[in-house]
Amino acid sequence: MIRFFFIFFVFYNIYAQDEAKRITQEKFYTEKKLFMLNELELDEDVEKKFWEIYIKFDSQRLILSREIALTNRKLLKNKIIEDFEIQKLIKKSYDNGSKSLQLKNTMMLELSKIIDNVNLVKLQSVELKFRQQMILRSKNSK
Questions:
Q1: What is the number of H-type helices and E-type strands within the chain?
Q2: Rounded to an integer, what distance in angstroms lies between the CA atom of residue 65 and that of residue 75?
Q3: CA-based diameter of the chain, in Å?
Q4: What is the mean pLDDT of residues 94-102?
Q5: I need a surface site. Which of 48, 121, 140, 142 has the fewest CB within 10 A?
Q6: How far apart are the C-alpha atoms of 100 and 60, rounded to whole Å?
Q7: Burial of 71 (0-12, 13-18, 19+ CB in 10 A)
Q8: 3-state DSSP: the chain helix, strand, coil percent, rounded to 5?
Q9: pLDDT tens digits for range 44-60
Q10: Structural domain of 30
Q11: Count of domains in the chain?
Q12: Do 130 and 33 meet the contact criterion of CB atoms below 8 Å apart?
């Protein structure tokens, strides 16, 4: 019986962590969406198309950014590492950076079909403002 409760407890904790991560990501994108749509001047029908395209590419870029950060942490953390591993990690970091840039380029091309140039140009600064706001919030909560 104790084993049953232990197994249940372990699986429940794993499920709860996944659920918390999902809620956190949903909350993040909800906040990001509200912030960006408040800053950009989009019609209702354009707004829906914009967000579908944006979220598709941005979620892929976010994955690549995390991989870049993880790779860079590995490079900085390991003091004793073989030269070939260093070269491999550096290449991986730059390859992911190139992929991220290509995704952004593709996203901008797709968005240029549905939003005007003013909002297209404004998008980059809006993303930066949101990122800065999140960093400040993170620092203030520590």
A1: 4, 0
A2: 15
A3: 65
A4: 88
A5: 142
A6: 8
A7: buried
A8: 90, 0, 10
A9: 889 989 999 998 898 88
A10: 2-141
A11: 1
A12: no
DSSP letter at 28?
Answer: H
Is residue 53 within 8 A of residue 114, CB to CB? The reply is yes
Rounded to whole angstroms, how far apart are CA atoms 67 and 55?
Answer: 18
User: Is pTM, for the whole model, over 0.70?
Assistant: no
Determine the Cα–Cα distance for residues 46 and 61; give it in Å rounded to an integer. 22
Sign (positive/negative) of CA torsion 73, 75, 79, 82? positive
Query: 79: part of which helix (H) or strand (E)?
Result: none
22: which residues sit within 8 A by CB, 6+ positions away? none
Secondary structure (3-state) at 76: helix
Q: What is the DSSP string of 89-133?
A: HHHHHHHHHHHHHHHHHHHHHHHHTTS-HHHHHHHHHHHHHHHHH
Instruction: Give the type of residue at 89.
Output: L
Q: What rounded mean pLDDT belongs to the chain?
A: 79
The two tokens of residue 85 are 């591993």
Give the tokens for residue 25.
Answer: 């990501």
Q: How does 31-58 read in b/e, with b if 16+ C-beta sit within 10 Å?
A: ebeebbeebbebeeebbebbbebbeebb
Q: How far apart are CA 100 and CA 68, in angstroms?
A: 10
What is the DSSP code (8-state) at residue 134?
H
